[in-house]
Each structure stands twice: as C-alpha cells, then as structure tokens.
Model the fold of this input.
Amino acid sequence: MPPPPRSCDAANWRCRPPGRARLPCARSPGVANACVRDGAGGIGGLLARYRHATSSPYDINGVSFYHADGNGNVTWLASPTGGTDAAYRYDPFGRWVAQSGPWAQGNIMRFSSKPWFAHNYSNTDGLYYYGYRFYDPLIQRWLNRDPIGEKGGVNVYRFVRNAPTSQIDPRGLQTLPASPLPCSRPGGRPPIPDPNRRSNSEGWPQRYFPHGGRCCNHSQGNEWALVDGQWHELWPGECTPIFTDCDGMTCGGGFYAVGAINGDCWTPGCDSWPFANRRWEGPGGTNGFRAVSPEARGSLEGNTPPGYTYGPRPPCQCEPPRWGATHNR
Done:
C-alpha cells in the first residue's frame, strides 16, 4: 500500500509530510489573500482570492477564482457568477500588455502565478518575486545572480534559458519544462524533471549521451532519488523516468551514487555490488572509503532528503541473498 497522500508546498513543489503546516497565503495588503489548498500550488496552482471588508469585523465579502494558461500565468479571475473580475495579457517574458476588470489592479498574483511588486502602482515598472530571486520583465532577466553560479550556465542572469513559452522556473532556482504541472505524480508529489530536456545551457550531455542513469526503488520502504540536483521521493516499486540522468539515491539509510548501487535499491540491508565501500551514511557516519555525499553528486537541496534519516545498514533481509551482496562491514 502506498503511504498516505502528502500536501504540496506551493513555493517549493516539495511534498510535505502529514502534520506539517502549509506555507502562509500570499497576501495583497489591505485587500485580499490568494490561498492554496493541499494538493494544489506552485506555478498555475492558485485557486481563489478572497476579499475582506476594510473595517471591523473584516468579514469576507467577495471571492474570485484563478484561471491560468499552460505556463501558469494568471490570465483571468472569474466571479462566482462567471463574470470577469480581472483579465490580463502579457508578452512571452511577462511584460504587461493589457488588463481589465474591477479587481485587476488589486490582485498581485500574475505572471508565473508570482506576486507583482509594483513601483508606485505601475503595471510596467516593478518586479516579480520567485522566492530565491527577483525578476524584471521589462529587461527580461533576473536581478540576482544564479545561486549556483556558472554551474547553471555562463549567463547567471538569464531567465528560463530565453525560452519562456516552453520553460518555467518555480523558485528562481532551476528551469523546468512548462509541463507537466506540479504535483502530477500519485499522492500529489512533484514531477521528476523531463528526461528529454537539456541538462545544461549547452545541452550537449543530454544530446549526445541520452542514456543517463536510472534509479529504481525495489525496497519495502520509501527512498529518494537525486535528479538534476533535486530530491524526488520514490515509493516502493517506483523508478525515475527512462533516460533521466539520476545521480544517486538513498537505500536503507545510506546514499549511493547511481553506479555504486547499479541503479537499484532492493530490500533494505541488501546492497547491490560493489558492496558497502560506496555507502554514505551522513556526516560523522561510518562511510565507505569510496562513498560520495549527495552534495558531491550535485545536490542543490542539501545532503539529507526531507524527513530522511541516515544510519547503519539493518540486518540483511534478502531471501535468497543477492549475488555479490555483502551483509557485513
């Protein structure tokens, strides 16, 4: 049986374990708040915008429903009766073209479903906030350098590889294909990156070496795959997409580079060849002399997946033991 569904973090596309609080709603000061529900969120995931009275007791006195295009840009706010509360038009890089409707100015969640911080109430002079960086649609570039420097390409201010009609950037941290939308895997989990997209600004590794490592979880518990610097949870029996370049995965309380575990995690305690000398158990752990950490394999989200615990390998439970497996340190 799969584990219970998780709620999706609107800003990070990260699925949050049950019991953890959702992120606060993004607010339009003095006017409304734009909220997300469990299972929705991220680019294209806004649901509704509530308006409150401006005097005590500040009761809700109106609601509008968000509609977005295929790239998650808010294009229309519908009233409960189907009327137009707001409508927007942008150019491909998010520059304002036109708007209409009585609540068009009050709503700040617009291009890429991100908040618009206007200068002096302007529709053309301002910034979009993506969490890690600010974006200026007028000059079509980030105002902040790429947090990973030139590892993401020599142009550290370039916005979605200059391809805004087919690429999105949920947090100002990593470019992803515009589809599928967030939380498209079972249980409301974020998608694993498109296996056919370019792996860097030049695109040569994916173009000439398309058969990247694949990670599969054949164990009895949940494990995590490291793909393009991000952690993705794998339920029992689940694999990363074919041709996706998986850099490594957890297995039974340890982390292995994809070649060290042959791409497969079996029943916890049963390492696939070449044995435990490539098992990484965290800072201060009993790590093999050929082990590498997730950050050394390119993780942009730290060495530890959300809620995961590194530790010694449990007793082997393979029946029969796999060929080449070692069950002792």
Summary: The CA atoms of residues 129 and 268 lie 42 Å apart. The chain has two domains: 7-177, 192-329. The chain has a mean pLDDT of 74. The helical segments are 204-208.
